[in-house]
Every structure is written in C-alpha cells, then in structure tokens.
Design brief:
- Strands 3-2-1-4-5-6-7 form a seven-stranded parallel sheet, with helices on both faces. A six-stranded parallel sheet has the order 10-9-8-11-12-13, sandwiched between helices.
- The longest helix is centred in the first third of the chain and has 19 residues, at 68-86.
- By secondary structure, the protein is an alpha/beta fold.
- The relative contact order is 0.12.
- It has 14 helices and 13 strands.
- It has helices at residues 17-32, 68-86, 114-117, 124-140, 149-158, 182-193, 211-225, 242-250, 265-273, 289-296, 308-313, 325-337, 339-353, 358-373, and strands spanning 2-6, 37-42, 56-60, 90-93, 106-109, 143-146, 166-168, 198-202, 230-234, 257-261, 277-280, 301-304, 317-320.
- α8 (242-250) links the parallel β9 (230-234) and β10.
- α1 (17-32) packs across α14, α7 (211-225) packs across α12 (325-337) and α10 (289-296) packs across α13.
- The chain has two domains: 2-172 and 357-373, Rossmann fold, CATH 3.40.50; 182-353, Rossmann fold.
Length: 376
C-alpha cells in the first residue's frame, strides 16, 4: 500500500504541537510497517536530521502553504497531482485540513475546534477559512481521528456525518519529560527566581491561554498569603498580547512574575520539573499536553474544568473555573497549604501519565488509516 502523509509541520528547530505529533507518530508508524511505502509531503525543504526509515520517500511540494490562498492551492491542486503521480492508496493529513479535489481516500486528524470556541485567538483570514471549509473537510474525509473524547463529542455535535467515521487516538508527551533531581531544582530556582519556589505556566502567551485571569488569580494568592512564591510564564510571546503587556506594566506583583520567552526543550523540562506546581488556565484545549508533561515531571497540575483537561488529568489534577480568577487563586492557595494534597496529586499523576504513549497513539491512528483505505 502507498500511504501519503502531509508532513508540512515537520520543521527543523520549529516543532510545536502538530509538528511533534507528526514526528512521533508517523516516523514510528512507517518503521513498524516496512511492507508499505510512505511518502512524506513537505511544502519547504525538510531536515536531514530526522532518522527517516528506508520505506519513507520525501517529497517537497511547492509553494509553501502558509496562508489561506496557498492552502487552497497546495491541498486542492498541488497535492492531488502528486497523489496521482505516486498512485497513493490513502492520504493522511494530521493538521486538520484535507484535499477537496482528490479522489484518493483521506484520513484527517482534527486536534480541536478552537476556531469555533475561541475565534479571537485566530487570525481573521485563518478563522474564516476554517469556518468556510471545515464542514466540507469532515464530509470529504473517509476517516477522522481526534485526540480526546472531549474533542470527538465536539466534532460530532458540530458536523453531521462525523460520528460514523471518527476515532479517538489521544496524544502523548515527548520522551525527555521526567523528574528533575533535587540539586538541579535548587540551581534552577536560584537561576530564575532567586531561590524562591514558583508556580509555572507553559505554553504560548496568547489570549486563548487565559493569562490575564492567571495574573488576577496570582494576585488573590499573594494578597491573602503574603508568600514569596513567584510565577513563571514560560513560552514565546504570541500575538494579541497588548492587554497582557499593559497589565504587567502596572501589575502590583510584577516583580514576582518572570517571562522566560522561548526556551530549549531541555531547559523547559528543568524549569517545569523544578516548579512547585503547574497552573494551566487555558479556556479551551483538545488535549492539554502541558498538563501531562507536568505529571511526567512529578509536578502537580492545576488546570481548567469544563474542557479536555478533566478527561486527560482525571484524579491527578486540581480543577478551577477558568473564567473565575478568584477560583484560580483559591486553588493555588489550596495546593500551597496542603502538602498531603500536593503529594497525592503527584502520585496520581505518575499513574495517569503512564497510560499515554506515542506507541498507543500510532497504533490507534493506524486503525483510522486502515478505515480510510478500505474500498467502499
């Protein structure tokens, strides 16, 4: 069988959510199925640093598809031509898009429907494109995979016909996330917070992540407890951050808040593993990888109720209403004052984290690929 995979987010030194998913799942999938030929479709030069299995063929399809007009050209004109050329049996697209013009069966991965629930977090042109075409993508794809039961329910409720073709494949965490030795925790705290304990947020700094309410919640915590605890915001400054920047300039506890900017993966693991607790107040997530990363690092997680994080975290996290900054502050105080609770969450987190792996993800997604490839 000839399997074509959209790998345009497999970028050297720029991997984020979908890119990591592609790297971990499809390299593993190709290696486990040497009897099949895989074609990885890139829209720009690929990196030779990845250890591609021998049955993987690399194809660059120009032009780079980085805005709606070029998305339309890439998926509906350029990709179909190459699918026909290689005589593909199935096309797998893990970035939530698919081709509307090819006759080749398709398996599409939809990580979430954030553009419906948090439209302000998307560029206007990108949001309109998804609003215009997602219904057609769902109808066109022969098989759909998503990363949580929460997202599956959301997709099924939003689009007619999705229920009969969708599977949950979950996601996982990169191998490097593991507990940080105590001596390294001490040196990390000395480096970043003058030796003080800290709460940490990990992720892009953008409106969807609800950082204004996190700062307000941290104020509640600081005002009530008079603690020396710090707050570390670890991630790149994304777009639409005018309110965050403005708030930080006049924020009462601005000297207790540290913005690290983008850090290397190794440094991220150390920063996370040295934290007192992770606070992840995102309004909406299809999976919530940082919560699981914290559990792998033996760090308790505080996160939002009413979204996928409750499904992923189960009894290994403490939940708050993300729209109520007082509730966020209350939960920060609760874990700070109750060491037994903190220890229990850490132990539960070890068990919960063990239930997710990229191997499981690859195995489950393979079933979706087979669903798509079966002749109908």
């Amino acid at each position: 069988m000839v399997i074509a995979v959209n790998t345009r987010f497999l970028l050297p030194d720029q991997l984020e959510g979908v890119g990591y998913f592609i790297k971990e799942v499809f390299l593993r999938m190709a290696e486990q199925h040497p009897e099949h030929r895989f074609y990885f479709f890139f829209d720009r030069p690929y990196s030779a640093s990845y250890n591609f299995p021998e049955n993987v063929h690399l194809v660059v399809i120009r032009p780079p598809a980085r805005h709606p007009l070029l998305w339309k050209f890439w998926y509906d004109i350029a990709v179909p031509l190459h699918l026909r050329k290689i005589k593909a049996d199935v096309f797998v697209s893990p970035d939530g898009f698919c081709s509307l013009t090819t006759s080749v069966p398709q398996c599409m991965v939809i990580h979430d429907l954030g553009f419906l629930h948090q439209p302000d977090a998307y560029k206007t042109t990108h949001r309109r494109y998804l609003q215009m075409f997602m219904r057609r993508f769902v109808k066109k794809a022969r098989a759909i995979a998503t990363v949580s039961e929460y997202s599956k329910k959301d997709i099924v409720n939003s689009y007619t016909g999705a229920a009969e073709k969708i599977r949950v494949v979950y996601s996982a965490v990169k191998e490097g996330f593991q507990p940080t030795p105590y001596t390294e925790q001490e040196s990390t705290r000395e480096k970043y917070t003058g030796g003080k304990q800290y709460f940490i947020y990990v992720g892009a700094l953008q409106p969807r992540k609800n950082l204004l309410n996190l700062l307000k919640g941290f104020s509640v915590f600081k005002n009530r407890l008079k603690s020396e605890m710090k707050l570390v915001l670890c991630g790149r400054m994304a777009w639409k951050n005018e309110e965050l920047v403005k708030m930080l300039k006049t924020y009462k506890f601005r000297h207790d808040v540290l913005l690290t900017g983008y850090v290397s993966e190794k440094e991220l693991v150390t920063l996370l593993g040295s934290a007192y607790a992770m606070v992840y107040p995102s309004f909406f997530e299809g999976f919530g990888v940082p919560v699981l990363e914290a559990m792998h690092c033996n760090v308790p997680a505080l996160t939002s109720s009413g979204t996928s994080m409750e499904e992923i975290g189960a009894d290994a996290a403490l939940y708050f209403n993300p729209r109520d900054h007082k509730d966020i502050g209350d939960k920060m105080m609760m874990i700070y004052k109750d060491e037994n609770l903190r220890s229990r969450l850490i132990e539960n987190g070890k068990k919960t984290a063990a239930g997710y792996s990229w191997q499981k993800t690859a195995d489950l997604l393979w079933l979706s690929v087979m669903d798509a490839s079966i002749k109908k």
